[in-house]
Amino acid sequence: MTIKQFLFSRIAAFGHAFRGWWYVLNTQHNAWIHSIVAIVVFILGLWLNLPARDWAVLVLTIAMVFMAEFINTAIEAVVDLASPVHHPLGKVGKDVGAGAVLVAALAAILIGLLILGPPLWARLSLLFTGN
């Protein structure tokens, strides 16, 4: 493989990845919820002037939720392709994928509360008490 072929194959790979990302955003309502929450967390993090370590944890947490949503969407598509008619094992696969998204989302909520909660509470207390 030449360098040119390698570069073109990498560009194509990124194209596939971005099409997958776009597909999830266009077809999965929960992906929009994840996106809105991620934007709110980002804005809060900027407003609270979070330290780098907190940002690292938040970025990893947001990525975890999106990865779970993307993998769940892939599982659903493959199950639908493999078994167009309802099959109990197909349902298990889809339910387990959805469960993974739920676990990631619940963990993200807890992490968000642990990281954003104390500085947000302190900032809001200052705003409302005037101290």
Explained architecture:
The chain is mainly alpha-helical and 131 residues long. It has a single domain, classed as Helix Hairpins (Orthogonal Bundle). Helix content is 90%, strand content 0%. The chain contains four helices and no strands. It has helices at residues 3-27, 29-48, 52-82, 88-129.
Question: Which shape, going by the Cα principal axes?
Answer: flat
Task: Tell me the distance between the termini.
Answer: 66 Å
> Biggest sheet: strands, sense, closure?
none
Radius of gyration: 20 Å
Instruction: Give the amount of beta strand, in percent.
Output: under 5%
Helix content: over 70%
Helix and strand composition category = mainly alpha
Indicate the CATH class.
Mainly Alpha
The overall strand count is 0
Order of helices and strands: HHHH
- The poorly predicted ranges are none
Specify the oligomeric state: single chain
**Per CATH, what is the topology?**
Helix Hairpins
How many distinct domains?
1
CATH-scheme architecture: Orthogonal Bundle
The average pLDDT value, as a whole number, equals 95
How many DSSP helices? 4
What topology emerges from the helices and strands here?
Blueprint: H1 3-27, H2 29-48, H3 52-82, H4 88-129
Helix pairs in contact: 2-3, 2-4, 3-4
Produce a short descriptive summary.
This protein is an all-alpha fold and 131 residues long. Helices cover 90% and strands 0% of the residues.
Descriptive terms for the model:
single chain; 131 residues; mainly alpha; Helix Hairpins
